[in-house]
Amino acid sequence: MVRYFTRLRMRRIYKWGGRPYIFDRKLKSYGFEYLNMSVEGQEAVTTVTPGQYILIEGNDDEYPFVAKLLKFFGDESHKQKKALVQWFLRLSEVPQNKKLLLGRSPHPQEIFYYLGRACDNEINAESILDTPFPEPGTKDTLYVKLSWDTKAFNVLDPVLMQDTPASTPPKPALPLFPPCASPTATPVSRGPVRRALPTPDPTVMRRAGSVSDTRATMSAGKRSTLEAESIHSASKLSASKILSAKRRGSAADTPGVRKKLQLSIGASECLYLRMKELRNSVCFPCFLIQVTPSTPRHATPSIPSRTVPARQPGNILEEARARLHVSSVPESLPCREQEFQDIYNFVESKVMDGTGGCMYISGVPGTGKTATIHEVIRCLQHASDMDEIPTFRFIEINGMKMTDPHQAYVQILQKLTDQKVTADHAAALLEKRFSNPAPKKETTVLLVDELDLLWTRKQNVMYNLFDWPTRRHARLVVLTIANTMDLPERIMINRVASRLGLTRMSFQPYSFKQLQQIITSRLNKVKAFEEDALQLVSRKVAALSGDARRCLDICRRATEICEHSTSHPSSAGLVRMNHVMEALDEMFSSSYITAIRCASLQEQLFLRAVIAEFRRLGLEEATFQQVFVQHRALSRVEGLQPISVSEGLAVCQRLGACRLLLLEASRLDMLQRVRLNVSQDDVLYALKAVRD
Amino acid sequence: MSKRKVKETHMPVGECISQVQMILRERFCHQRLPEKPVGMESQHKHLLELLRRTAVHGESNSVLIVGPRGSGKTMLLNCVLRELLEVKDVNKNVLPVHLNGLLQTDDRIALKEITRQLNLENVVGDKVFGSFAENLAFLLEALKKGDRSSSRPVLFILDEFDLFAHHKNQTLLYNLLDVSQSAQAPVAVIGLTCRLDVLELLEKRVKSRFSHRQIHLLSSLSFIQYLDNVRSQLSLPQDFPDTNFYDEWNDGIKVRHFSSYPQLVDVLQRHYNSSKDFRSLHLLLMLALSRVSASKPAIKPTDLLEASRVCMVDSKANILHGLSILELCLIIAMKHLNDIYEGEPFNFQMVHNEFKKFLQRKSHSIHNFDKPVVIKAFEHLQQLELIKSMDSSTAKIQKEYQLMKLLLDHSQIMEALQKYPQCPTDVKQWAMSAFG
């Protein structure tokens, strides 16, 4: 039995084997025939030769990289051991937005032949994991069927897999890819597969039996040919788990281990169906897996879909309203051309060079910061699809969308690798990922929205975010967004602010011309507004905040008012000045004056009493008791029956609830202090209008 | 046959009365929705249109309904929802989520409640929700997955909206409003609040994402309309089983009955002056209704007068009537101290001295009390919260020297003395004299 060991505990020793031959005279490098790997203190030696499929140490312990070994070479001193490899990708390594291109749910053990150029195919030979591969036909077998060239999945060209290794592998039998692994050859090999009876394979059963009885039985009809049709390898973790289970199982049959293993299998019933589907297109080993039904590990939540489809806009005003909604994605982003270009150049140059950097973007809400960056990323993604720049990954986090600043690590890691871990662990993993050189690495573009929310007392989250890009192997571009221009100076300690650097950009509030242009471009020839009406809205908003969202909302409201103003919705014409005025009034006018006018008589009297008492005291604050004395006097003047103290307190509380008055806690009863929340002039103006 | 018919239309009076009680109580206490909201037609139309567009077109919206307490915000919203759900297409298409700022006091609880009301917890099966962070990510993912045309619109109804603005970072509001402004599952965020300054509570980022639609419910009800309301609230519905009783009852609350009692109009005017909202009106009518019985099968103006008297009564007057003579004397002493020192706080020793002065100089009927007895009386007043300690309770000051303030107005004391049963004349005179 081969001894297994984990990388964390053992130190591996790598030794060249065979006779060196000159590989490149100029570079003075030597080629080698095979590599012997052993573990300190153990005698077992694993030999790897070119042509074998190997696992390579990566960021993720559970899923090491998969590659095919092409060649070994090293320098004269034998210090550096290098290897040339052909990469295979797991689906988790494919960018999130490209996964849909596959068009089906992948087999969990499926890998893809990598045809891209972004990854360095020269690796350090010492990162090869020497985990022995299990017997062919176990569930850890990996399958390859398609190739991935960073843009699309293609059917694998059989020629690529034809090059068989020169020497036969010595120990763990690594199956070779046969030339028949192409769809054209399917009908030939499919026949026997389908007819094959599920006869349990003794070796598989032995393995499965030691782990769990219910787990898997495999139909391995026509084993000898099928084995040869796939790459077999084992995920390191599962292999070591099986072993540890075996070890423990020999001593005492612990049910805990068994349970854990069942979970780690995590296969669902649909696997069988999926396999069937796969089998129809390509010759795969035929599996028949019986699994106890369990809930999927990563359930995808969703809002239930509606029974009746949403109605499409019917007339011009509805069309305009749909286009003016903030959520609708515009065809272009006008008025931010300069900012767009700057950000584009920044990110593009970093992606091209494979370096990292930070950028800080500030601006008041509603000035198009996030929208511009999304637009930049869209363009860059397009460019990388057109092969103009290397591929990169885009990740977005938002300080407001997390409960705690440290959740940033968790979210970044989850978006990078689909792992779910705790914040501390995620920080450690990210640290490792960004500080170690890794063979296959593309640039990551990270957008941090609402940066100020990531502030912690020690500022370690911000520190890390800005420190990682400076690492040599990180290839990380961080774009940060916040509202205030001087945020780095105000809240960041020196070492954080210094790492953020001085690449800053601020988005000015839109001017009225820009706002007008934005609306016009959104409407895009839908004639729903009068020219003057648009100008009024843009001028008003530009004067107040320059918030494009506000502008769009007002226009939307104006279309509604326009629609309601006519009796029949279809006869409604253009949105005119008066509609816009009404919408502006609704949204910007303060409601205090109307509220005072609509208040009951006693409430109005109380407000007058408050002002009278303020004048008497010369202060802007009085106790309820003092105001109430005034109130009584006033009601006598007005010829009203004076109210009791309880009623007076109720009146006072009602005004306090609307926040016309500011009150102290009501347990102070008569001694609570009263202040006005509106200016005295406003109150007097409102009350005077009532009496007239 | 005919006998039975007669029986059907003429129920015994007791049964009629219990029917009346049931119908009207449901109206006053159970917040039964009226057929149509009164006096807020334009607001009703605005809100209905808005929600209909969310339900039918999948357009995301956000709106605030602002109005003083008792102005009918919830009533309006419930009427609109009822009307909206009657539409056939909408009925099975919207998912209302009701949250209340008083119940969901922080975002963690609010998120749990949203997940529960959206029935999303079924998706994860028996897996228990882990942390707050997971919960938030889960919900956001769920909302992000949806899109305008295919997923069911969610109506988030946030009662006491202002309290949500006090949650940490306003995370929930930011996320809900952000969803309403981006191409995700269609949502309508409806906030109900009585604070007019609610927009100032929102953080600038949250505020920018809010659409700034506000529906103000400020009733400009005139007194005539108010009287109409009183009548319509008291009148029986058309389908009342006993027609005779129905006619009698509705006749009893006609206009001429009201106007023939100027006193009644006065009382109602006073109520109208004090507050126009329906809540206080319902309280008044409820008290009047409770005086209706089988022996007195109609609401008389006197019932309303009596109910109004109960409504208007000062809450502290009854407490004062229940005090002992000694306690009353102490309160009078405090009143004099307040006059002398212009509302400065006093302590027990000062009150006791004042009281002793009174005993020596003017009193004929009251004997001297031991100091411990007086202290006990003083403590009783403090327990009744007629006086309140000004120091923080932690301070180690002897009871006699703790500074106190009187929580009574002069008018309240004088009124209570007038009505106090068998109050000694010398005490009354002492109270009325300018200085102790």
TrEMBL record, chain A:
Localization of this protein: Nucleus
**Stored InterPro entries:** AAA+_ATPase (IPR003593), AAA_lid_10 (IPR041083), ATPase_AAA_core (IPR003959), BAH_dom (IPR001025), BAH_sf (IPR043151), Cdc6_C (IPR015163), ORC1/CDC6 (IPR050311), P-loop_NTPase (IPR027417)
PROSITE patterns recorded for this chain? BAH (PS51038)
Domain of life, source organism: Eukaryota
The region called Disordered is annotated at 184-224
List GO terms (cellular component aspect). nuclear origin of replication recognition complex
Using the UniProt record, give the first listed, main subcellular location: nucleus
Q: Name one GO molecular function term.
A: ATP binding
Q: Which UniProt keywords apply?
A: ATP-binding, DNA replication, DNA-binding, Magnesium, Metal-binding, Nucleotide-binding, Nucleus
Q: What Pfam family does this protein match (any one)?
A: AAA
User: What GO terms describe the biological role, i.e. biological process, of this protein?
Assistant: DNA replication initiation; mitotic DNA replication checkpoint signaling
User: Which SMART domains does the protein's record reference?
Assistant: AAA (SM00382), BAH (SM00439), Cdc6_C (SM01074)
CDD domains membership: Cdc6_C
Purpose: Component of the origin recognition complex (ORC) that binds origins of replication. DNA-binding is ATP-dependent, however specific DNA sequences that define origins of replication have not been identified so far. ORC is required to assemble the pre-replication complex necessary to initiate DNA replication.
What protein family does this chain belong to?
A: Belongs to the ORC1 family.
Protein name in UniProt? Origin recognition complex subunit 1
Q: Which organism is it from?
A: Oncorhynchus tshawytscha (Chinook salmon)
Primary gene name: ORC1
TrEMBL record, chain B:
Q: Where, subcellularly, is it found?
A: Nucleus
Q: Which InterPro entries match?
A: AAA+_ATPase (IPR003593), AAA_16 (IPR041664), ORC4 (IPR016527), ORC4_C (IPR032705), P-loop_NTPase (IPR027417)
Q: Which GO terms describe its molecular function?
A: ATP binding; DNA replication origin binding
Q: Which CDD domains match?
A: AAA
UniProt keyword list: ATP-binding, DNA replication, DNA-binding, Nucleotide-binding, Nucleus
GO cellular component terms listed in the entry, alphabetical order: cytoplasm; nuclear origin of replication recognition complex
For this protein, the record's SUPFAM superfamilies field holds: P-loop containing nucleoside triphosphate hydrolases
Top-level taxonomic group: Eukaryota
Q: AAA+ ATPase domain: from which residue to which, for each copy?
A: 59-220
Q: From the record, what ranges are coiled-coil?
A: none
Q: Name one GO biological process term.
A: DNA replication initiation
> Assembly and partners?
Component of ORC, a complex composed of at least 6 subunits: ORC1, ORC2, ORC3, ORC4, ORC5 and ORC6. ORC is regulated in a cell-cycle dependent manner. It is sequentially assembled at the exit from anaphase of mitosis and disassembled as cells enter S phase. Interacts with DBF4. Interacts with POLQ.
The text of the family note is: Belongs to the ORC4 family.
What is this protein for, i.e. what is its function?
Component of the origin recognition complex (ORC) that binds origins of replication.
Query: Any idea what this protein is called?
Result: Origin recognition complex subunit 4
